[in-house]
Amino acid sequence: MSLNAERSYKMKLRDVENAFKYRRIPYPKRSVELIALLAISCTFFLFMHTNKLNSRLKEMEVKLQPSEFSALGLTGNHISGHDAGGKHDDINTLHGTFQYLKSTGQLRHLTTTQLNNTPRAQVDTLFFNRITKTGSEKMMELLKILGKRHNFEARRDVEGFYEVVNMHDAYAKNFIRTEVINCTKANSYTKHVAFLDFDLLDEPWPIYINMVRDPIERLVSWFYYVRAPWHFAERKEMFGDAIVLPSIDWLKKDFNRCIEERDPECVYEQMEMGNLGDHRRQSLYLCGQNMAVCMPFNSHEAMQRAKKNVEEHYAVVGTWEDTNITLSVLEGYIPRFFSGAKDEYYAVKKSLGNVNRNTYRPSLSDKARAVLSQNLTREIELYQFIRHRLYKQYIALKLEEDPKLRD
Ligand SMILES: *[C@@H]1O[C@H](CO)[C@@H](O)[C@H](O)[C@H]1NC(C)=O
Ligand SMILES: *[C@@H]1O[C@H](CO)[C@@H](O)[C@H](O)[C@H]1NC(C)=O
Ligand SMILES: *[C@@H]1O[C@H](CO)[C@@H](O)[C@H](O)[C@H]1NC(C)=O
Q1: Is 179 in the pocket of ligand 1 (CB under 6 A)?
Q2: Ligand at shortest distance from the CA of 219
Q3: pLDDT value at position 104?
Q4: Where do the domains of the chain lie, and which CATH numbers do they carry?
Q5: How far is 369 from 363, CA to CA, in rounded Å?
Q6: Once rounded to an integer, what is the mean pLDDT over residues 287-294?
Q7: What distance in Å separates the CA atoms of residue 210 and residue 171, rounded to the nearest whole number?
């Protein structure tokens, strides 16, 4: 700023000051009272607000401090991330499940034995009937690593042009005999296939595991997965000319618009029997092979049957959305195959994280999410049921480590 400019700036400032000094504005008396009243109420509201903020802060301190959390093996960050909206009794969180079990008196009697299906297995085979788009490739990589550590053979199905998710009984029996239980040493077997009832087929039960994922996230994931360039490249390499490249317009589709425009690809009709190909039914993999019951989309009966199978026949159904809890539960309930899983996982996390990951994935709009949640109610309920069970299994482990948590 030059000297001249500075001077004129100062002059201007003075002019403004003077204007304030000498300009007397006569206020009517009423207005003065009004202003006073306003000032008082402002002070009062500010006081109220500060008070509210203060108690909110206190509340948050309480939330972040209880020893329960550290005993449950959670970090502060994890808690605030999940429980910060004041959802004290939301049973879809670990903390909410803990509070629920405590307030209903179940905490005192909860044991891992009640929740452990592993001892019911009749062969030394871990059967992972992996659900599509739940990060199962990552689990398969982990199984390979654990196989070396625990001396079991990590196997999978032969990759085919179609996934045989549904099997009639004779096919299923042959499949189990020749591929799943044909191994004498400890082993794991992985395949995209709907739940097989080994009792019905008169075959011995393996140790069942699976992974789930938020049903809406799964749909988004699938939508962009089938459009990913590497998905085509891989299939082209494997199946050659049988793979027909789709149109550019199709490849460029956006999921949010697909839903808004009611594009047939993005309509999820209730109880419909078709569209098996886009794997919209996570429940199918847990419900089983009875198509009349398990195929109708978002049906109550399919959900109930899936819940029953999970409860009675699965050792663990986990989710990468709760990686640490899932790995701890796998370690605790299936130690023969999974002890040390957490260490192994974190030792190679970087490379595991990238298996089959689609880096091109626009985010879902709130509007599209709202539309979808209306049509996926049972799928969502099943998913939440599974998470609740996983948390219960985890809490039971922690209770046995630290009995003081029971009171
Ligand atoms: C079991 O069957 C699979 C698939 O047919 C085969 O690859 C594997 O070698 C068999 N294992 C044994 C131990 O026979
Ligand atoms: C939701 O389900 C209803 C009833 O089947 C159907 O009419 C509607 O098109 C569906 N909406 C979406 C976005 O899938
Ligand atoms: C999960 O476990 C790892 C390794 O023990 C730890 O570094 C990480 O903070 C844990 N994450 C959460 C969310 O608790």
Answers
A1: yes
A2: 2
A3: 94
A4: 119-383 (3.40.50.300)
A5: 10
A6: 97
A7: 22
Residue 8 has pLDDT above 80, yes or no: no
Indicate left, alpha or beta for 105 from its phi (over 0: left) and psi (-120 to 50: alpha).
left
Query: Distances from the Cα of 399 to the Cαs of 63, 105, 342, in angstroms?
Result: 20, 14, 20
Pocket of ligand 3 (CB under 6 A): 74-75, 78, 324, 346
CA of 288 to the centre of ligand 3 (A): 34
Q: Which two tokens stand for residue 31?
A: 């207005």
Tokens of 356: 């089959």
Q: How confident is the model at residue 36 (pLDDT cuts 50, 70, 90)?
A: low
- The single residue of 88, 192, 279, 388 carrying the catalytic annotation is 192
Ligand 2 centroid distance, CA of 372 (Å) = 9
pLDDT at 350: 80
**Cα distances (Å, whole numbers) of residue 56 to 43, 46, 51, 77:** 20, 15, 9, 18
Instruction: Please tell me if the CB atom of residue 269 comes closer than 6 angstroms to any atom of ligand 2.
Output: yes
**400 band by pLDDT with thresholds 50, 70 and 90:** very high
Report the range of poorest mean pLDDT among 148-157, 159-168, 294-303, 374-383.
Answer: 159-168
- Report phi then psi at 315, rounded to 5: -65, -50
Is 192 designated active site?
yes
| Lookup: tokens for 167 | 């099997």
Share of the chain above pLDDT 90, in %: 65
**How is 40-80 classified by DSSP, letter by letter?**
HHHHHHHHHHHHHHHHHHHHHHHHH--HHHHHTT--HHHHH
How many other CB atoms are there within 10 angstroms of residue 228's CB atom?
Answer: 17
